[in-house]
Design a protein that fits this description.
Number of domains: 1
Strand content: 25-35%
Distance between the termini: 45 Å
Shape: globular
Structural class: alpha+beta
CATH class: Alpha Beta
Largest sheet: 6 strands, mixed
Length: 166
């Protein structure tokens, strides 16, 4: 029996419910029914995509250890086909280590863009996160405030070009 096609409204509803249940409530218990076993997650501060539900779980746990009050507020979400494009505001307080950085005890609030694609099984198949890393680093006291130095801007642009293979 073929699974009926999923509508954009259903895609949007499933993704938004997963954000509330898994990420905002920090409850990974329903992830096996939410994310495909081979889910792929693209995060800008990772050299390679996160591959598989177990790697995604490890990222989720590390994020929630570092920022126990991590929370996303969905500002807008638009679905087309099997994909949802979202703009959300994320916030959290640095109370544990993350990506090699020690906790700072400071909080951040920033906007982020996220794309989520569901597979034919109606489970999360692929995600793309676009994070303002410099803004978060400044708010956490890991980078000086003010505009970034020109050398940093050039290095970030070079990194983006290299990642795209140009």
């Amino acid at each position: 029996m073929t699974t009926p096609a999923i509508t954009p409204d259903e895609v949007r509803g499933l993704v938004l419910a997963a954000i509330e249940r898994i990420w905002n409530a920090n409850d990974w218990s329903t992830a096996p029914e939410t994310y495909n076993e081979h889910v792929v997650v693209h995060v800008p501060f990772q050299e390679q995509p996160i591959r598989g539900r177990e790697e995604f779980r490890a990222f989720h746990e590390a994020l929630h250890i570092a920022f126990p009050d991590w929370h996303a507020t969905i500002e807008s979400a638009v679905a087309e086909g099997d994909t949802v494009a979202m703009r959300w505001t994320i916030r959290g307080t640095s109370l544990g280590p993350f990506m090699g950085f020690p906790p700072t005890g400071k909080s951040f609030v920033t906007d982020e863009a996220v794309f989520a694609r569901l597979g034919p099984d109606r489970m999360g198949a692929e995600f793309w996160f676009f994070v303002n890393e410099a803004d978060i680093a400044r708010q956490l006291g890991l980078m000086p405030s003010g505009p970034p130095p020109k050398a940093l801007i050039l290095a970030m642009r070079l990194r983006q070009r290299l990642r795209r293979g140009k």
